[in-house]
Design brief:
Elements (H helix, E strand, L loop, with lengths): L2 H15 L4 H35 L3 E16 L8 E13 L2 E5 L6 H4 L4 E2 L14 H13 L4 E6 L2 E6 L6 H25 L1
Antiparallel strand pairs: 1-2, 1-4, 1-5, 2-3, 5-6
Helix pairs in contact: 2-5
Length: about 200
C-alpha cells in the first residue's frame, strides 16, 4: 500500500468516527472490544473444560462414600419464557493412601460452570411450582438412585484431591468452543467490513 493510499484509508476511518454517526462510534470503540473479549473468553472456557475432561480419562478409580446431595437449578430464560435446568450436586469422600478427601465435583470441569446454578431455596414463586417441572423430577430420581448405589470416584494420581464422578469429554464443551470461535470470527469480519 502506497503512502497516499494509506493516508486515504486513514482519512476514511477518521471520517467514519466524526461523520455524526455517534451510535456507530460508541458501538465500535466501546461495545465491539467487549464482544470480542466475550467471544475469546467463551472459547477459552470451553477449551479449558475440554482439557480437564480429556485428562480425566487417565485418572485412577476408587470407591467413595456419598455424604450428601442437593438439587440446584438454572433458569435459561428466553423470549419471556422460562427454561429450567436441574442438576444434582453430590458431596462425597474417598481415601487415598490413608488420607481422606472430600469433594462435590461430578464432572472435572464443574467448577467452571457451577456458579451459574442456584439453590432451590431461591426458586422464585413467580416461576411457578418447581415440583411441576419434568427436569426436577428427573433430578430427584437421580438423587434417590445415588443413595442406593455404590459410588465410583476417579482421582488424579498426581493430585489426589482432584476428583470427579464422571470422566470423558462431553459434547457441550464443543458447543461452547464452537460458539466462541464463531462469534469471534463474525466480529472480526464485521470489524473489517466497517473499517475498510
Amino acid at each position: 500500500m502506497t503512502t497516499i493510499a494509506y493516508f486515504s484509508k486513514l482519512s476514511l476511518i477518521f471520517d467514519f468516527f466524526y461523520s455524526g454517526n455517534l451510535w456507530l462510534w460508541i458501538v465500535f470503540t466501546i461495545f465491539y472490544p467487549l464482544f470480542v473479549y466475550f467471544s475469546l473468553w467463551l472459547f477459552h472456557r470451553g477449551y479449558k473444560a475440554y482439557k480437564l475432561m480429556k485428562n480425566s480419562t487417565k485418572w485412577s478409580a476408587t470407591t467413595g462414600e456419598l455424604l450428601d446431595t442437593k438439587i440446584l437449578y438454572n433458569n435459561f430464560a428466553s423470549s419471556g419464557s422460562y427454561n429450567f435446568d436441574f442438576i444434582v450436586v453430590k458431596k462425597y469422600r474417598y481415601t487415598i493412601d490413608g488420607i481422606v478427601y472430600t469433594s462435590n465435583t461430578d464432572l472435572p470441569s464443574d467448577h467452571l460452570f457451577i456458579g451459574e446454578y442456584n439453590s432451590m431455596a431461591h426458586f422464585s414463586g413467580h416461576y411457578g411450582d418447581y415440583k411441576q417441572e419434568l427436569g426436577y423430577h428427573t433430578a430427584k430420581k437421580q438423587e434417590n438412585h445415588l443413595k442406593k448405589s455404590p459410588l465410583m470416584v476417579y482421582f488424579d494420581p498426581e493430585n489426589p484431591q482432584r476428583s470427579c464422578l464422571r470422566t470423558g469429554v462431553k459434547g457441550s464443551v464443543y458447543v461452547t468452543m464452537g460458539m466462541g470461535l464463531f462469534l469471534f470470527l463474525l466480529l472480526i469480519l464485521l470489524g473489517l467490513e466497517i473499517v475498510f
